Each structure stands twice: as structure tokens, then as C-alpha cells.
Amino acid sequence: MPLEQLRDEFQNEIERHKGIMVEADDNHIRLQGEIEALGVVPGQLEEMQKRRGALLESTTRCQQQAIDLGQKSAAYLVELEKYKQAIGARFRSRLLQMAFLLPGAVAALLWFALAYLGSNEMVTGVAEQLKQSVQLGSGHYQYLVFAAAGLGLIAFILWIREMTAKYRIAHFSVVTSGYLEGLEKVQQHRASGYDLALLDIPASAIDVAIDDAEAQNLRHKMARQQAKIDNIREASELEVTWLNEVSKAESELAAEMVEQINKEEQRTKIVDGLRFEQGGHEQALEHSNHQLKVLKTAISLLDGATENLATAFNREVRERTAQLLPMLTQGRYEHIKLDDNLNVEVLSTEKGDFMVFDEVSSGTQRQILLSVRLVISQALARDCVKGDQFLFLDEPFAFFDAERTQAGLNGLTGFRQLPQIFVIAQEFAEHPQQFAMCIEIDRTATELIA
Length: 450
Hints:
By secondary structure, the chain is mainly α. It is about 70% helix and about 5% strand. Helix 4 packs antiparallel against helix 6 (about 210-225).
């Protein structure tokens, strides 16, 4: 029947999807083995790229710090020379100022005393004594003015030179602060160990030995302008050399990592391709698993529908047999029961209970089976063929007596989907009225006679 055919098709589809799942699972396991054989660590490529980027960034920073420190060191040493010159110039300027200011002041006082105090009666004696001591005439007093003015001008020039030296000294303090700040940043960066950690090497791998305590002590001396030029130059050169060595090592390692990163990228691409292929098999697994659930649900529904149809069919057979069976058995049996395997039990009116099929006589068995066959033929013609059909019965009453035969013939009428029934029998006691036509056959006859 169509439901059974459909169930078989669904079952075949289930087996097909099971095969797909087995194949997809095998492929998934195989691909997983290939992925594990490649040994790609998740996130390793990103870490390598990140490390190389950090190396390049650190290389640029170290190179720039080396250039800046070298330039600042050279500029600082130049300013240090100027600072020391300014210290000497300030000292000399102060001494010379005193050397010229004192004579100038004396000349100015003499000129004032000789020019303006001579007319004063109270100091006339003093003025005369000054004139005799200086031995200048009244017309030569102005030379004292010129001498005082010249000496004062020289002292003023020396004062300007002192102010210039003081400005240079103050400016050197600013230069020193800037240089010390840059030097301290470089030393702090070196002391942090960031570059060594990035290179994954010990401090001894860099062939430059720097004592942090000495470097700090030098900075303190520089802040007090007590450091020696040779010490400053040597410390700066050591720091620059260290930066250059580190930047060189970082640059070389970054260059070496290019090939490693390229290889890792190739392996990662292969793994990505394998994982993509795995994803396809996973989708196939999920799809087939979903289809299995759908097909199993469909089979369950089909089984339910088949069971309902079978139940309805059995009910119809029982009801229709209940109408036909009493006619065939002269009212002794009315109802039957059919299980899923079409095993028959019959209700005996005499015993008031169902009897197993083997408990009744063979004649009654034939009557019951004839009744069941007729009812089933009617149902099949109606539900499967969906149209009228003829029924061909070969010797249905072979072991019936006349009474049972007549009862059986009476039961053949009334089937709507079986309007034409052919009954073959060797003989009838008389022509039953139920037949529309009787055809007698003789072995020697060449024509059928109705």
C-alpha cells in the first residue's frame, strides 16, 4: 500500500543519511588528525606578528634615542665649555671692575675737590695741599674728569661682560636640566629590561657594561656642575653604544622573524582550509542528523496513520463481517476479531465468548474465511482501486453442503464496489436465483452455452 511504500522510502532515506553521517564523521576525524599534525597553536601567528611589530617599534625608538642622546651630549659638552669660560670671564670681569672703578672714583673726587672746594674758606687749606700734591694747574683739572669718565666706561663695559657671563651660566642650568632629563629617560628605559625581554636574552648578551650606580652618581655630579668632561663623554658614549647594539639585535631578530611568520601564515592558511572543510562535514552531520529526526518523526506519524487505518480497516471488517457471517453460518457466529497479523477469533453465540480459529470446524472455518475475503475485497476495491471491480471465486463452496452453499450465495449480494462476481463450481443442485447468468461447460463442447 502507498503508506508502506512511503515508509520504505523513508527508511531507505534514513539509511542513506546514516551513511552520510558515517562518512562525514570519518572525514572530520581525518581532517582533525591533519590539523593536529601541523601543530599550529591558536593565536601564535598573531603573537609573532605582534612581537615583530614591537621589535620594529623598539628598534626605531632606540635608534632615535641614540641620535637624540648623541646630539644632546655633544651640545651639552659645548655648553659646558662655554659655561666654564663664562665662570672665568665673570671672575675676571669683577676683578677688573674693581681695578678700574677705584681709580676712577679717586679721580672724580679729586676733580670735585679741586674744582669746587677751592672757593670754600673752610677747606681752602685742604684744597691747597691737594693742588700741591697733584701738581696740576687750574687749567688742567678737566683731565681728571676725563680720566674718571674713561675708567667708569671701562668698568661699565666690564659689568656688561659680567652680565653676559651670568646669563650664560643661568642658561647652562637649563641645558643641564634638559640633558639630565633625557639621559635619565634613556637609563630608566634600559634599566626596565623591556628590550632584553623582547629579545629574550640576558643583559650579558649585550657587550656593553654599564653600572647603574655610577650612572646615577654621575647625574648628581652633573646637576651640581661637578662632573668631569671625560666622564660625561664616556657615560654618553656607553649609553649610545648600548642603544645601538640593542637596536641592531632587534632589527636582526625582526628580519629573521619575517621568514618564520611567512611559514606560520602558510601553515595557518592550510589549517583554515582544513577547518573550513571540517565545517562542511559538520554541516553535513547536522543536516543529516536533522533529517534523521524528521524522517523518524515522519515514520512515527506514518506508523500512527497505518495503525489508525489498520484499526479502521479491522473495525470495518468486523462490522461488515458481523452482517455477513450470520448469513453464512445460520446465525451461530456473528462477530470476529483480527489482530495485526490477521489472525482470526470468532464469537460463539452458544458459548458467549470468542473462540480461537482452530477450535471451530473446518466447514465453519471456510465460511468465516469466505466472509473475511469478501469483506476485504470490498474494502480494497473501494479504498485502493477507487472504482468498481469484479470478483472471481474459484470453487468457494467446494466443501459446503447445500444449506451452507445457499447461505453463501445469499451473502454474495449487496457489495457496491463488486457489482459482478464470477463463481466457479463443478455442480449446483439447481440453478440459484441469485445468478444473473449461468454458463455450463462440457469437456466435449466447443461453445459456451448460457
